[in-house]
UniProtKB/TrEMBL annotation:
It is a multi-pass membrane protein. It is found in: Membrane. This is STAS domain-containing protein. PANTHER family: SULFATE TRANSPORTER (PTHR11814). One of its GO terms (molecular function) is secondary active sulfate transmembrane transporter activity. Keywords: Membrane, Transmembrane, Transmembrane helix, Transport. NCBIfam families: sulP (TIGR00815). It comes from Lactuca virosa. One of its GO terms (cellular component) is membrane. Residues 522-647 form the STAS domain. The chain crosses the membrane at residues 170-193, 205-232, 252-269, 281-302, 342-362, 374-396, 408-429, 436-454, 466-494.
């Protein structure tokens, strides 16, 4: 912008309150109206930005028909992208990482199935089919797929509200598979209909609080196994679990406590070693399997199951039986199944995509959110027909996979093959595995979900987010997992609504010696211009906030007039300048608000001046402005500096002609 700004401080102004008398000579630029577009074009653009922000069809432009088909198949099945370039070096890395995560997946699979009140074997079934499906459809190279603690806990606790897994195990299993089917259907349709922004409602603060709360709930559930209690509460909350633990002290078994404590300490120490030295990832990855082997041998050798140490018992051998005949699409439990599917689906999807994105960022590649949703969804739909319950990308397993040097999704295939061999030949070996080891494995796995440094960071940056996090945390611990989550999401949405309905308005002042206008609260040397009240509105103007803005602006005017009276200034208010640069959108209520404000100010003898309205706002104001009062050239400017310089000189001209 051309222009020089001379500021003469009028002697009398200087005398009173350091008001500058601004004299600016500069070129005035016209505010352009945006090019005309039909309503259809606008709608098309809006839909594209809503559903296709990543523009997935960009790669097809200018390709031959054959190439388009190939790209299409590669888009649907990412395995076709990296498969042709696969070589032996990559395979070596993938075999190592695949075997490493299998050694973790086998004990975790059995443990998490017990957490969901399902037969332990279902946990292994769920570590066999889903990884194979994901390897074909998934776009993450590091994600290791299988059952996860939080989704297992959610499914177990929600279904247990209506059906007892002890009294009616078959019905419980049917409901678990059906919930998984609906969860998968929901996840895949979110990706297919490109509605991924729905899971963005789980903010980082909500997730950190929720995960930490759930980790504590999951750990408390393990007290049953670690203390050897037989009559344990069916509730999930902190209070019922603790009262159950201390009411049943006579059931505590010292053998179980001693053995469980030893394994828990061993697992926590190995975890600590791997965190401190990521190169030693195999220490924490192999520890659970080693614990299972050692404890099983110990129980077998000393016949410890006769001395109060409870064991898993006999497990079936063989691969996943088909379970499509167990899916239940009618009857009285339909509502429960849909609700469970929806909630476990959203939570496991959020976890899977967050994990995928975390490792993609570390290795500098892109993960397509919508593709991931479809992959995880299809994986669960297929899983529900092959005796698997809900699965997703697990954080602990993916971290091990990443540290073990996984290069592609083949590590998932290697893991699945290892689990298959286990299912076919090694199941009888788990007969004497004590439950306390599974408890210790779960506690060690979920303790990583309590992220204290992240919580401290949130406290430092945003206190409101910290409150949201605490609500999620205490809600999960004291009320229940789903209600805690709902509470936190509710508060996050309330925060968004609050930001919409109470947008920020700030008073701008001139930085001396320049034509720059900035927030007077932030820039202490910015000074007011006599006769001008310059306001910046920093949000879209719509039905939710137009009344508030109206009241707030009238209050600014009152404040201005009081301030002028206090310092005995005689420059009464002549112009209210609204800087609309940050107003990205406006609706009919917003337009009415601008028109009404102009009328109210006119009665007071004050002129309303608009600065830099963006395309959409300008267009709507033009259409509504039948008399062309709002957008006359003398009340519409490109920058605040130009507005003030132009109006100030006209004001001077008027006042000098009156003398």
């Amino acid at each position: 912008m051309e222009g020089k700004v001379e500021q003469e401080l009028g002697s009398q102004n200087h005398h009173h309150h350091n008001h500058p008398c601004v004299e600016i000579s500069m070129e005035i630029h016209k505010v352009e109206t945006p090019p005309k577009r039909s309503s259809l074009q606008k709608l098309k653009n809006r839909l594209k930005e809503t559903f296709f922000p990543d523009d997935p069809l960009r790669q097809f432009k200018g390709q031959s028909a054959k190439q388009k088909w190939l790209l299409g198949f590669q888009y649907i099945f990412p395995i076709l992208q990296w498969g042709p370039h696969y070589n032996l070096n990559l395979l070596k890395s993938d075999v190592v990482s695949g075997l490493t995560i299998a050694s973790l997946a086998i004990p975790q699979g059995i443990s998490y199935a017990k957490l969901a009140n399902l037969p332990p074997i279902v946990g292994l079934y769920s570590s066999f089919v889903p990884p194979l499906v994901y390897a074909v459809l998934g776009s993450s190279k590091d994600l290791a797929v299988g059952p996860v603690s939080i989704a297992s806990l959610l499914m177990g606790s929600m279904l247990r509200q209506e059906v007892s897994p002890a009294q009616d195990p078959l019905l419980f299993l049917q409901l678990a598979f059906t919930s998984t089917f609906f969860a998968g259907l929901f996840q895949a349709s979110l990706g297919f209909l490109r509605l991924g922004f729905i899971i963005d409602f789980l903010s980082k603060a909500t997730l950190i609080g929720f995960m930490a709360g759930a980790a504590i709930i999951v750990s408390l559930q393990q007290l049953k196994a670690l203390l050897g209690i037989t009559h344990f509460t069916k509730e999930m909350g902190l209070v019922p679990v603790m009262s159950s633990v201390f009411h049943n002290t006579k059931e505590w078994s010292w053998q179980t406590i001693l053995m469980g404590f030893c394994f828990l300490v061993f697992l926590l120490v190995t975890r600590h070693i791997s965190i401190k030295k990521p190169k030693l990832f195999w220490v924490s990855a192999g520890a659970p399997l080693l614990s299972v082997v050692v404890s099983t041998l110990f129980v077998f050798a000393f016949k410890a199951q006769r001395h109060g140490i409870s064991v898993i018992g006999k497990l079936e051998q063989g691969l996943n039986p088909p379970s499509w005949n167990l899916l239940h699409f009618h009857g009285s439990h339909m509502g429960l199944v849909l609700k469970t599917g929806l909630i476990t689906g959203i939570i496991s999807l959020t976890e899977g995509i967050a994990v995928g994105r975390t490792f993609a960022a570390l290795k500098n590649y892109q993960v397509d959110g919508n593709k991931e949703m479809i992959a995880i969804g299809v994986m669960n739909v297929v899983g529900s027909t092959t005796s698997c319950y809900i699965t997703t990308g697990a954080f602990s397993r993916s971290a091990v996979n990443h540290n073990a040097g996984a290069k592609t999704a083949v590590s998932n295939i290697i893991m699945a093959v290892t689990v298959m061999v286990t299912l076919l030949f090694l199941m009888p070996l788990f007969q004497y595995t004590p439950n306390l080891v599974l408890g210790a494995i779960i506690v060690t796995a979920v303790i990583g979900l309590v992220d204290i440094p992240a919580a401290y960071q949130i406290w430092k940056v945003d206190k409101f987010d910290f409150v949201v996090m605490l609500c999620a945390f205490f809600g999960v611990i004291f009320i229940s997992v789903q209600e805690g989550l709902a509470l936190a999401v509710g508060i996050s949405i309330f925060k968004m609504v609050l930001q919409m309905t109470r947008p920020k308005t700030v008073v701008l002042g001139n930085i001396p010696g320049t034509d720059i206008f900035r927030n007077r609260h932030q820039y202490k040397d910015a000074v007011p211009v006599p006769g001008f009240l310059i306001l910046s509105i920093q949000a879209p103007i719509n039905f939710a906030n137009s009344n508030y803005l109206n009241d707030r602006i009238l209050r600014w005017i009152q404040d201005y007039e009081e301030e002028e009276e206090n310092i005995k200034m005689h420059s009464s208010l002549r112009f209210v300048v609204l800087d609309l640069a940050a107003v990205s959108a406006i609706d009919t209520n917003g337009v009415t608000f601008v028109q009404e404000l102009r009328r109210v100010l006119e009665k007071k003898g004050v002129e309303l001046v608009l600065v830099n309205p963006v395309g959409e706002v300008m267009e709507k104001l033009q259409k509504a402005d039948g008399t062309h009062d709002l957008l006359q050239p003398n009340v519409l400017f490109l920058t605040v500096g130009e507005a003030v310089s132009s109006l100030f000189s006209s004001m001077k001209g008027v006042s000098s002609s009156h003398v």
